[in-house]
Specification:
Order of helices and strands of chain A: HEHEHEHHEEEHEHEH
Structural class of chain A: alpha/beta
CATH superfamily of chain A: Thiamin diphosphate (ThDP)-binding fold, Pyr/PP domains
Structural class of chain B: alpha/beta
Helix content of chain A: 25-40%
Number of strands of chain B: 6
Distance between the termini of chain A: 40 Å
Helix content of chain B: 40-55%
Strand content of chain B: 15-25%
Shape of chain A: globular
Largest sheet of chain A: 6 strands, parallel
Oligomer: heterodimer
Strand order of the largest sheet of chain B: 2-1-3-4-6-5
Number of strands of chain A: 8
Shape of chain B: globular
Largest interface: A-B, 35 and 31 residues
Number of domains of chain A: 1
Distance between the termini of chain B: 38 Å
Radius of gyration of chain A: 16 Å
Strand content of chain A: 15-25%
Chain lengths: 207, 156
């Protein structure tokens, strides 16, 4: 199949496709704002941990989780704004290169929650080139880092490949995908109370 | 405790070397101290204990990140080597040396100051126990008088 999938302009359809029939050993961490709302819209899976604060720390949390759970797969869903706030973490991750960590950057090019001001990946008013997060990851020493392009251009085949890369290709794996900044209906995570949220997640992880 | 995260400081150098030499330890060199907060919290969520080693100037880099162990009541331990408080040569170390304990406490981190070398081990043990037994955040501050002020000499 080489048909493109225009319906994947909807970020949530893309995530749904990537997480379909998710295995029990897949742990998913999401960054605050749009990414957490999008993941939560698919249901509050017990193996999800959704950030609703501490921007810029999400990637290091997922890295620590991966170091603690070598028999599980950790998938970080991170927005471009959140990753940009902790870019150095890509260099830190490269130093120990956990094979069980995959990072999917949902790159909408804006700070959606605060009024869609452009991020460094979204281009600059003066025409200066936008930051390429896959290239940054590669330059940090994460060899398997690829910009897969806009979600609207993904084919069924490339989505299947992306799913495999995120779930089982030896990591660290980084993929960036361009997504729309369209406002979708708000969906809340399991709990905004951090203790309630992490207790449920941790119990599932270490059981 | 098998996970050590650090932005290196001279006061931690021997500890870092000893951990590097211990095959059961993962030693992670950070680009900034806030990463250590995230890594230690993520590791705990996965059932593993970690610690953040940093210098007092690094405390300022952790502030917003410390909301994570605070809001989620994740057991969190840091060992902080103090600068800017005892025989300091570099004036730029003084502001964070003065502010570090206040900043930590403002973010809900209990601080344990050590001035006596004989008390380092027992204080770290107590702080670690507090952090994990009560699911709180704790920091052991190793004073500059204990560590000795770093010496600078032009041409040296």
């Amino acid at each position: 199949m080489t048909e493109t999938s225009p319906e994947l302009a909807d970020r949530r359809a893309l995530l749904d496709t990537l997480l379909v029939d998710r295995p029990d050993d897949l742990l998913v961490v999401s960054s605050l704002g749009t990414t957490t709302w999008d993941l939560s819209s698919l249901g509050n899976h017990v193996n999800n941990f959704c950030f609703v604060g501490t921007m810029g720390v999400t990637t290091s949390f997922a890295f620590g989780l991966a170091l603690a759970t070598p028999k599980k797969r950790v998938l970080l869903l991170v927005g471009d704004g959140d990753l940009l706030m902790g870019l150095g973490t890509l260099a830190t991750i490269s130093g120990s290169a956990p094979t069980n960590l995959a990072i999917l950057v949902l790159d909408n090019g804006v700070y959606r929650e605060t009024g869609s001001q452009p991020t460094a990946t979204g281009g600059h008013r003066n025409g200066r080139p936008a930051t390429d997060l896959a290239a940054v990851a590669d330059a940090c020493g994460i060899e398997n880092a690829v910009a897969v392009g806009p979600a609207t251009a993904l084919t069924d085949q490339s989505i299947d490949t992306l799913r495999v890369d995120l779930r089982s290709t030896p990591g660290p794996v980084v993929r960036t995908v361009g997504v729309t900044a369209e406002k979708l209906p708000m969906a809340f995570p399991y709990s905004f109370d951090g203790v309630t949220a992490i207790n449920r997640f941790r119990s599932a992880v270490i059981s | 405790m098998t996970l050590i995260t650090h932005v290196p400081d001279g006061g931690h150098a021997q500890l870092i070397t000893r951990c590097d030499d211990e095959p059961t330890m993962d030693v992670i060199t950070l680009t900034t101290e806030e990463e250590g907060v995230g890594i230690v919290c993520g590791a705990w969520a996965g059932g593993r204990r970690g610690v953040l080693l940093m210098q007092s100037s690094g405390v300022g880099n952790t502030v917003n990140a410390l909301a994570l162990p605070n809001a989620c009541r994740v057991p969190f331990l840091s060992i902080v080597t103090m600068r800017g408080e005892w025989g300091e040569f570099i004036p730029w170390q003084v502001p964070m040396g003065l502010a570090a304990p206040t900043i930590l406490e403002a973010m809900g981190v209990q601080t344990y100051r050590v001035d006596d070398g004989d008390r380092v081990g027992s204080t770290v043990e107590a702080a670690l126990a507090m952090a994990h037994n009560t699911r709180g955040s704790a920091a052991v501050l190793l004073s500059q008088s204990l560590l000795g002020a770093k010496q600078f000499e032009e041409g040296g």
